[in-house]
Amino acid sequence: MRATVFQPFCGMQLQLMGTRFEFLPHPLFPEDRQTVFVLEGGTSFIYKVRNVITQQLCALKVFKRDSRNEHVAQVTALLARYTHLTALRPEQRLCITKNLYPELVEMYPEMEFAILMPWIDTPTWAGILLNPQVSATYTREQACDLARATAGALWSLEAQGLAHADVAGSNLVPSLDRKQVQLLDIEDMYIPGMPPPPRLSQGSPGYQHARLGPSGQWCPEGDRFAGAVLLTEMLTWWNPLVRARVADRSETLFRPEELQISGTPCWQAVRDTLYTLNPKLLALFDQAWFSRTLLDCPPLRDWATALLSDCS
Q1: How far apart are CA 9 and CA 5, in angstroms?
Q2: Please, which residues have CB within 8 angstroms of residue 123's CB and are 6 or more apart in sequence?
Q3: pLDDT for 301
Q4: Per-residue pLDDT, 52
Q5: CA neighbours within 13 Å on the CB side: how many for 132?
Q6: Residue 249 region, left (φ>0) first, then alpha (ψ -120 to 50), else beta?
Q7: Can you tell me the distance from the alpha carbon of 37 to that of 20, in angstroms, rounded to the nearest whole number?
């Protein structure tokens, strides 16, 4: 079988898991049969496809050449053991390999190690930060609910010796009621005993510790600092005084150059707001903010415990 360049068109179908999936048009160009719905990220293209039988919407994540490797398949296989970690939903992910789909990969080599997973329509946390209308309706109660869910999800990973390794607003999707979360981009997670990925995660801008070790965030404590910043965003974004200290169209609470710097207007507004919620939360934030290493940051368990005891 001759290899073909992977250029999907509307209505094109793939045979996977005993059923067929079709590529969908871009909503802005429904009559254009060549323009499929696709989102480009730093490492991949994400296509919107539909199960022809059930009509369920799915995402097909096709990796770019430099990010296409066996590590993705290994992570997918290992995470299948952790079905109780609902924020990952590993049981709903299929990795396309030569062993499973030899003819498909032979025809479209770009499809090797692609991931099929459920499509998510709700915005990420970064999307909420970027939307002034949604931000204005975000309440203190929602902040506590969302932070509890997020801290619980991150603690559940850390308790298993796992780390997402790139915790960021763009990699977390809150439910509409703010009481559940789902983590995205889990292909390079830290898993005990697993060889490191080709590129060790250094985190995302706005969530990076100033003194990362040689493993970056790919280590058991890799989520502690980024998680602290993310939880602080969630816990304080309801306060207009905090939002007023953040530049328009920013998808993070702190600019990269502000991290672990004290005395800025945003830092002060954040600390004041955390104190009104629970002084324990302020103490955890300070411990992470002034930490010298990731290990010096509080465990995610401490955040989850503080949020369960009092946040309202």
Answers
A1: 12
A2: 131, 134, 173
A3: 97
A4: 95
A5: 5
A6: left
A7: 17
pLDDT at 2: 63
Burial class from Cβ neighbours inside 10 Å (0-12, 13-18, 19+) for residue 218 reads buried
Q: Please name which of 66, 73, 57, 75 lies closest in space to residue 112, comparing C-alpha atoms.
A: 73
224 close to 300: Cβ distance less than 8 angstroms: yes
Which CA distances in Å does 110 have to 10, 15, 41, 147, 216? 18, 16, 16, 38, 29
285/242 Cα distance (integer angstroms): 15
Model pLDDT, residue 30: 62
pLDDT value, residue 90: 84
Taking the complete model, does pTM exceed 0.90, yes or no? yes
CA dihedral 141, 155, 295, 171 (to 10 degrees): -70
For residue 234, give both structure tokens.
Answer: 């969630």
List the chain residues with pLDDT less than 50: none
pLDDT at 32: 66
At CA 192, angle to CA 209 and CA 213, rounded to 5? 25
pLDDT of residue 310: 74
Residue 1: its pLDDT value, please?
58
